[in-house]
Automatic annotation (TrEMBL):
GO terms for molecular function: electron transfer activity; flavin adenine dinucleotide binding; succinate dehydrogenase (quinone) activity. This is succinate dehydrogenase. It is found in: Cell membrane. Keywords: Cell membrane, Coiled coil, Electron transport, FAD, Flavoprotein, Membrane, Oxidoreductase, Transport. Its EC number is 1.3.5.1. The active site is at 337 (proton acceptor). Belongs to the FAD-dependent oxidoreductase 2 family. FRD/SDH subfamily.
Length: 670
């Protein structure tokens, strides 16, 4: 099957407008005869469900949480990008487009990224109209801050809880449609299969997580807004319930899975503290606006800190290595996430990590507190030489910008970040890979769409900070509602889709067989036992740095672990009850397949790009020595994998990436 991305012809700035002018539409009177299933109610799924219902479609929305408000989008902290140029610092649609393609290390599709930049400004207007409380400047205008990988301020934010506020906006829009009867909401339902009828996605099979009931649901199209697969590493910044099951079931039904090895390691997370942990906590990238990242220059100081004989505040300025500012003077602490993460790993691997495990660096706000304090003292005509006053005023400014993040850090680490530097270390965060979609956001299965983090389309090999919320809402509010209409225009005479068919019967039987197999396995190890083992393989051999030996070993070890899982996993209880272990078991079973494909994809891509860093693909000399080295001649493509049974049998399909509007060149943030 040839991969047809369906990119419209013409100049890139006109593609989306011309496309919308020519697509087929569904008459408002016909929309009420068409059903759409939306799985996932985070920013992508929630905004899509609300908008499709507002247009007149009958929407069935599913989430495995007790409420759409619990979607993991709520955890996003720092902000959302939009090319509005409110700061007058040179931003534009083209610059956001350029920064996103460059930040993704030239492994994203130009047309999709330009469209994303184009509609970004509409998102802010939409959310302000919903009442999202974005931060504002003194005069009442919306405020902006900077994020990594850019030289402008384009990130709109609501303190350190932007995701929560945006999700509440989408949830309010959903609730209005639920009240009108246009959205039928299914909380605590998990999708366990996609139903294909005559080659088209026509429904899903779900499990009611409270009662265990297996249900059939039909529609004319199915939309997956089910997030990413970072929990394949066990420890990540994702909510513990976040999983790959919906996307993986779609993959097994014919949807190609693209670039699974493109996974983001976020540089500012609270370090691992022990084997007892089940997840990691993110510290927003927005902190890198004002926080300076450093480690001691002298190894003796490192040892003294680890042994408790020295405090970081006692180390003189000249004995600190602000390594990002040293290595990347143009961008400093605001280099992209993949660059900042590898730089932290390099310092810690060299022995300069500052916590007991040697896997932490400092994020220090002392300079920002002093700078803001002096500014405030000057504004108020107070003594700028009064150190105590300056510190107090500076801390007030920092508290207004990042207060809830500082509070969260103090509760978890039991240290006051206003008076001592935070300790941070990279951790698995966002996944740029996902289901392959064309320009319409449709997968390789007709009628099956993937939006937000569930698809691969916009971020290439590395996502810039504050772009996840942008993509989720762009897809849900402004892209999918147009593109899905073009497809559904052929269904206005189809009538309701019956669930009483052999296809639904077969899919339901597959789900029941899977659940019964897990419940009757009678092994001796818990689900978490296998998940933790998988996570260690992934982190150690498919993590921040990858090589042929480690990846080859990982593939064999994951295959063996999967075989052991099906022999030895123990799932207590029954299906006819609330059974979280059973729900976890189905998810980990999928991770044990995805993990192998992930490693296979990383092994085949013999280059370094973005979050995919191969130790055998680095610059050998010159200014960029030691930095990631792409191979544009051989790997400027999307790797889309077709399911053929075992992950080792997956077939590679390539979508060649064309760069007509941006020059293809090695990244430099120096």
């Amino acid at each position: 099957m040839a991969l047809d991305s369906k990119i419209p012809k013409g100049p890139i700035a006109d593609k989306w407008t011309n496309y919308k002018n020519k697509i087929n539409l569904v008459n408002p009177a016909n929309k009420r005869n068409i059903d759409v299933i939306v799985v996932g109610t985070g920013l992508a799924g929630g905004s899509a469900a609300a908008t499709l219902a507002e247009l007149g479609y009958n929407v069935k929305a599913f989430c495995f949480q007790d409420s759409p408000r619990r979607a993991h989008s709520i955890a996003a902290q720092g902000g959302i990008n939009a090319a509005k140029n409110y700061q007058g610092d040179g931003d534009s649609t083209y610059r956001l487009f350029y920064d996103t393609v460059k930040g993704g290390d030239y492994r994203s599709r130009e047309a999709n990224v330009y469209r994303l930049a184009e509609v970004s400004a509409n998102i802010i207007d939409q959310c302000v109209a919903q009442g999202v409380p974005f931060a504002r400047e003194y005069g009442g205008l919306l405020d902006n801050r900077s994020f990594g990988g850019v030289l402008v301020s384009r990130t709109f934010y609501a303190a350190g809880q932007t995701g929560q506020q945006l999700l509440l906006g989408a949830y309010s829009a959903m609730n209005r449609q639920i009240g009108r009867g246009k959205i039928k909401m299914y909380n605590r339902h998990e999708m366990l299969d996609v139903v294909i009828v005559d080659g088209k996605a026509r429904g899903i099979i779900t499990r009611n997580l409270i009662t265990g009931e297996i249900e059939r649901h039909s529609a004319h199209a199915v939309v997956l807004g089910t997030g990413g697969y970072g929990n394949v590493f066990f420890l990540s910044t994702n909510a513990m319930g976040s999983n790959v099951t919906a996307a993986w079931k779609a993959h097994k039904r014919g949807s190609y899975f693209a670039n699974p090895c493109f996974t983001q390691i976020h540089p500012t997370c609270i370090p691992v503290s022990g084997d007892h942990q089940s997840k990691l906590t993110l510290m927003s990238e927005s902190l890198r606006n004002d926080g300076r990242i450093w480690v001691p220059k002298n190894i003796e100081d490192v040892k003294a800190i680890r042994e408790g004989r020295l405090k970081p505040t006692e180390i003189a300025e000249e004995n600190r290595d602000y390594y990002l500012e040293r290595r990347y003077p143009a961008f400093g602490n605001l280099v992209p996430r993949d660059v900042a993460s590898r730089a932290a790993k390099e310092r810690c691997d060299a022995g300069y990590g500052v916590n007991a495990t040697g896997e932490a660096v400092y994020l220090d706000f002392a300079s920002a507190i002093e700078r803001y304090g002096k500014e405030q003292a000057t504004v108020r005509h107070l003594d700028v030489n009064d150190k105590a006053l300056v510190k107090k005023l500076g801390q007030e400014v920092v508290k207004n910008k990042y207060g809830n993040l500082f509070q969260m850090y103090e509760k978890i680490v039991d240290q006051d970040p206003y008076n001592t530097p935070m300790m941070i270390y990279p951790a698995v965060h966002y996944t740029m890979g996902g289901l392959w979609v064309d320009y319409n956001l449709m997968t390789t299965v007709p009628g099956l769409y993937a939006i937000g983090e569930a698809n691969f389309s916009d971020h290439g090999a590395n996502r810039l900070g504050a772009s996840a919320l942008m993509q989720g809402l762009a897809d849900g509010y402004f892209v999918l509602p147009y593109t899905i209409g073009d497809y559904l225009s052929d269904d206005i005479r189809t009538g309701p889709i019956s669930t009483d068919s052999k296809e639904f019967e077969e899919a339901e039987k597959n789900v029941r067989d899977l659940l019964n197999r897990l419940l009757n396995n009678k092994g001796k190890h818990s689900v978490d036992y296998f998940h933790k083992k998988l996570g260690k393989i992934m982190w150690n051999k498919v993590g921040m740095a990858r090589n042929v030996k480690g990846l080859t070993e990982a593939i064999q070890e994951i295959k063996a672990l999967r075989a052991e899982f099906w022999k030895e996993v123990m799932v207590p209880g029954t299906n006819e009850e609330f059974n979280e272990e059973l729900a976890k078991a189905t998810r980990v079973a999928d991770y044990l397949e995805l993990g192998e494909l992930f490693a296979k994809d990383a092994l085949h891509r013999e280059e370094s790009c973005g979050g995919h860093f191969r130790e055998d693909a680095v610059e050998e000399s010159g200014e960029q020595k030691g930095e990631a080295k792409r191979d544009d001649e051989n790997f400027a493509y999307v790797a889309a994998w077709e399911y053929k049974g075992e992950p080792s049998d997956a077939v590679l399909h390539k979508e060649q990436l064309e760069f007509k509007d941006i020059e293809l060149k090695q990244r430099s943030y120096k």
